[in-house]
Amino acid sequence: MDRRALLLGPLPAVVLAGCGTAAVANQTTNASSADGTSTDESQSSAETTTTLEELATADDQANSLDEPIAMSMTLYLVEDALDPPDSPLSSQRTPEGLSIIAEDMGEVWSQANIVFDPVTIETVQLPRDVLEAIALGLDTGPFFDQVGNTFDLPNPSALNGLYVRAAGRANGFAPSGSRVFFVIDEPSVHDERVSSHEVGHILGLHHDLEDPGTLMFSGTNGTVLSGIERTVARYTAGGVLNGAR
Ligand SMILES: [Zn+2]
């Protein structure tokens, strides 16, 4: 991979996209990476202040796959606060099911030597208006407005997956600039694939438009990460862990 292309490509804008220090608080952006039947995607751009020299150093570190990068991850089984668990807005998944997904995600991301550790599984009850907004069409404004106010997410981690009953037409999505992803109960592709794909977005990866076998191609069971994708993801993961985003 030509380093110049890497440095001058989309990496800086993606990696340096503004993000609050709290894991999930203070985010007001709506979903921008819907997946599934709809494939539209837009990433927010952001100012870049990091120097090329700093990026080159980070690139060297990220390119070394020998060192595992451990990221904490919490998966949330999301229920309707008003009427759990029979509400049509409550996830029908189980904590055991989420544990299996986390394990399978670990296999996918082992390609980049990114390890999900520790993994925490939580059941949370969200206000009905928040769940309805998500279920109807990817509007996560109410979610980000109310987290920390009308509800809390226990044990937020570097990565936070919310497993919801429905999310419009998408299998999953990761609101731009956040470290949160959402996955529906019955996606059209494998659970661990949706989850791993959304983590890819959080770690700075865009959709692959060429090869359905790749993790970042939308709406397939592909799981392959290219060399540059591994580098970008590791670089972004390092930034997350260092508090840079
Ligand atoms: Zn996507």
Structural features, described:
This protein is of the alpha/beta class and 245 residues long. The chain has one domain (3-241): Collagenase (Catalytic Domain), CATH 3.40.390. The protein is built from eight helices and five strands; from the N terminus they run αααβαβααβββαα. The chain has helices at residues 3-8, 11-15, 52-63, 95-109, 128-137, 141-146, 191-202, 227-241; strands spanning 69-80, 114-126, 159-164, 172-173, 180-184. A five-stranded mixed β-sheet has the order 2-1-3-5-4. Helix 4 (95-109) links the parallel strand 1 and strand 2. Helix 3 packs across helix 8. It is globular, with a radius of gyration of 17 Å.
Averaging pLDDT over every residue, what do you get?
A: 81
| First and last CA, distance | 25 Å
List of distinct ligands in this structure? zinc ion
Task: Give the oligomeric state of the chains in this entry, treating copies of one chain as homo and distinct chains as hetero.
Answer: single chain
* Helix content range: 25-40%
The largest β sheet comes out as: 5 strands, mixed
Put simply, the count of helices is 8
**CATH-defined superfamily:** Collagenase (Catalytic Domain)
What series of H and E elements makes up the topology?
Answer: HHHEHEHHEEEHH
- In the CATH hierarchy, what is the architecture at level 2? 3-Layer(aba) Sandwich
